[in-house]
Amino acid sequence: MSLWTLALYACALGKTVTAPPNAGPAGTWALVRVNAEAVPVTVASGRVAIKILYEVIFLRADQTFSIFTVEKIGDVSSATPPETVYNYGYWGDSGGDLLIGITPVTQLGDTLTIRSNSRGLSVYARR
């Protein structure tokens, strides 16, 4: 397991930080549920199983983002080490809708929700 992966796990173990009631989306968000199941969770993407061990989204004030996902693909029960997948780009507001990249996102207080075809409903909590 890489040092970066260990750092991501350490972030997951930290205390939840509650933002002021009108806080914008900038901040650190950790994946807590996918389709009502707690992380870690296994989801099917086509014919392949993906076990999501941890995912964190960093939304910066300059409207850039980074997403780091620690996951196992295929035989999720094997002893093979997980992979860390990186995604980055820009986030912003388009006509009142929050977008991370081109993906619509809903923020309600300290919760973000993202609906996708490949994963379903993902819920993130502010850290």
Structure notes:
The chain has 127 residues and is mainly β. The protein has one domain (3-126): Lipocalin (Beta Barrel). The protein has 1 helix and 10 strands, in the order αββββββββββ. Strands 1-4-5-6-7-8-9-10 form an 8-stranded antiparallel barrel. A hairpin with a 2-residue loop joins strand 3 and strand 4 (48-59). It is elongated. The model is unreliable at 1-17 (pLDDT under 50).
What structural class do you assign from the helix and strand content?
mainly beta
Mean pLDDT: 86
Main-sheet strand order equals: 1-4-5-6-7-8-9-10
Q: Approximately how much helix is present in the residues?
A: under 10%
Can you tell me the number of structural domains? 1
From the spread of the alpha carbons, the general shape counts as: elongated
Q: CATH topology, anyone?
A: Lipocalin
Radius of gyration: 15 Å
So how many helices? 1
User: Class, according to the CATH hierarchy?
Assistant: Mainly Beta
Extract low-pLDDT stretches: 1-17
In angstroms, what separates the terminal alpha carbons? 23 Å
The helix-strand sequence is: HEEEEEEEEEE
Task: Outline the biggest β-sheet.
Answer: 8 strands, antiparallel, barrel
